[in-house]
Amino acid sequence: MSQRLLTIVLILVVIGGFVGLKAQSPDTSAMLSQLQQISQTQKSIEERISAIELKQSGMLSMIQNARAFPQQPQVAQPPQPPRPPQEDVNKVYEISVGNSLVKGDKDGKVTIVEFSDFQCPFSARFHPVINEVLKAYPKGVKFIYKNFPLSFHPQAEPAARASLAAREQGKYWEMVDLLYQNQQTLGEETYKKLAQQLGLNVEKFMKDYNDPKMKEHIQQDMNEAQTAEVRGTPTFYLNGKRTNARDLAGYKAEIDQVLAGGK
After folding, report:
1. pLDDT > 70: what percent of the chain?
2. Do residue 244 and residue 138 come from a single domain?
3. Could you read off the pLDDT of 98-147 as tens digits, one per residue?
4. Are 186 and 158 in contact (CB under 8 A)?
5. Alpha-carbon span 225 to 147, nearest angstrom
6. Most buried one in 22, 81, 121, 221, CB count within 10 A?
7. Residue 75 DSSP label
8. Strands 110-116 and 141-147
């Protein structure tokens, strides 16, 4: 209620009180009593009006706040992708030799299997360590290399075919080493140059390079990788158990334990 309306109401109350007082009695005490009642009535009206105005003010403030700070719609959170199962570090995988060649002591008690990608920089970094291991253990250790070309490395699968084509002429391990050494320039021209460097018949090499059976061999390696739960390159296994050894000292610690009768 506005201040103006309040004033009008109070005037009417006062006038009404005096009119009633005059009509009833000229007695002064009665007049004073009437005035007190009018004052109390005025006070009651003012309190009620104040309460109404306070309530209206609160509602107005809520409306203004709602306009100034509209409630933001809640955005649904996208579902989180499932996490890969936690790796069992003690799990032993059955990895067959398959069509792969064996390097080192074929009767060795220790078998190291590598799943790798010729275009992977980490594979290029850690693969040469295997040659150090085989040199340190001419007896007791054998090595198997398997291909796991990653889809985002366009030359990984062709390089794998180049290694297998060199295998047809007895230069597999030599080509594997050269491919890693020339990782920055992988491509058909590089494969031809490396074949020439190894003294291969380049025409036969390229024919074998394009032979569909090379892709079949690579697919067999990838099937083995799936069975062994390979998630990236390079991944190494020592007697079927995934190993984090990446230098000669790390391999020696595990190899010596096996050769001494441990697991």
Report:
1. 67
2. yes
3. 999 999 999 999 999 999 999 999 999 999 999 999 999 999 999 999 99
4. yes
5. 9
6. 221
7. P
8. parallel
